Amino acid sequence: MNAELKPDPSRENLDAFWMPFTANRQFKANPRLLARAEGMYYWTADGRQVLDGVAGLWCVNAGHGRREISAAVAGQLDTMEFAPTFQMGHPIAFELANRLASLAPPGLDRIFFTNSGSESVDTALKIAIAYHRARGAGQRTRFIGREKGYHGVGFGGISVGGMVNNRKIYGSSMLPGVDHLPHTLDLGHNAFSRGLPHWGMHLANDLERLIALHDASTIAAVIVEPISGSAGVVLPPVGYLKRLREICDKHDILLIFDEVITGFGRIGKAFASQVFDVTPDIMTTAKGLTNGSIPMGAVFSQRKIYDAMMQGPENAIELFHGYTYSAHPAACAAALATLDIYRNEGLLTRAATLSASWEDAVHSLRGLAHVIDIRNFGLIGAVELEPRAGKPGARGYDVFVKCFERGVMVRQTGDVIAMSPPLIIEPAQIAHLVETLAAVIRDTG
Ligand code: PXG
After folding, report:
1. Residue among 374, 145, 358, 152 at smallest CA distance from 268
2. Taking the model in full, what pTM does it have?
3. Is the CB of 166 inside a 6 Å radius of any atom of ligand 1?
4. What is the rounded distance in angstroms from the CA atom of residue 221 to the CA atom of residue 207?
5. Which residues of the chain are modeled with pLDDT < 50?
């Protein structure tokens, strides 16, 4: 360990930071502070090594401490720390867009830059409405999301999202005209499926029901995650995404895939749509785009969408949307360096190589007390625990904390433990991750 670790902040020094998606009082009474990271590991402020079983938050796909990225960012900051992209441009923004277009599923070669997954989602929703209006279908303003969906925390994202705690107090402030497909998690039919569940494709047919209710002519887009992460890993049943695509095509409705967690190699190809062989009209990304190093998101649109918007006088701004930091030079540099690493190390397909042994490893937890389901795909795994009576989430939280104390970082959502390690993980580290989780589950009542 060469970096000098900063001492723990004292209790009162923790107060000012209002932490996101955190039980602030519980955390500040017993903080978990990370101070350094390298490869597959974090080190805590008091010097303990922790295996990263979640790639930070599903973003550090190439592992930690990648000097190629920090060097590219430092070089860019020295050369030009900022340049506007409103009515101006800078070369690596165009270079990055071209690189992304070359990785993208067929036709998704028009790229809009944002700073996060939430911004990518709101951008995609706005593009969908603007596109329909540009082609004379301005009445298409409705969106169809899905129960248990997570699309970030903007008002657009929570409106199409389907996680009750993110929505319940904002009821009257959300987008009007949003409906939701049923989620596809069904332990009765699918518990302990290996890979995609075989039951549940028919749930996509609910889209026809919603279309019959609202009329296709009012609907702009359907938005789903190919695999839901935040809701505790929900997989698409075999054939489900293809069916959604067919129904959208039939009714001229755009299909948006939110690939914020599935993008950049998480399930064995650059994007989930390539794994499932279903091409959306718009695709949202963030996280792995820069290996989590600098905030950045990218929205990929079919060329027909971009072309439809390129109307009116040449001096007219076609889309009144954008962020000061859209295509920030430091983020572009980070993304280009990240894409080089992914290419040079074959990381975008490494999950495909590892997925069979990963599946065996996570399913080895079957039979442990309280384990009621295990789900996996690519380098994603989830273990669902039976909730304690009257205390949903308590068992999951205990398992998460004990794993951390024993040197393994997993992610907890309610009573689901999710794992999505950096794509550089080695078999021995997979074993260590799963064995530690097994030991903790055994020791947790
Ligand atoms: N869409 C999807 C599918 C996501 O998973 C977002 C949008 C929002 O991205 P930003 O960058 O605005 O946070 C996400 C974020 C978890 C977890 O543990 C997942 C996310 C964020 C934090 C935790 O499952 N996904």
Report:
1. 358
2. 0.97
3. no
4. 11
5. 1-5
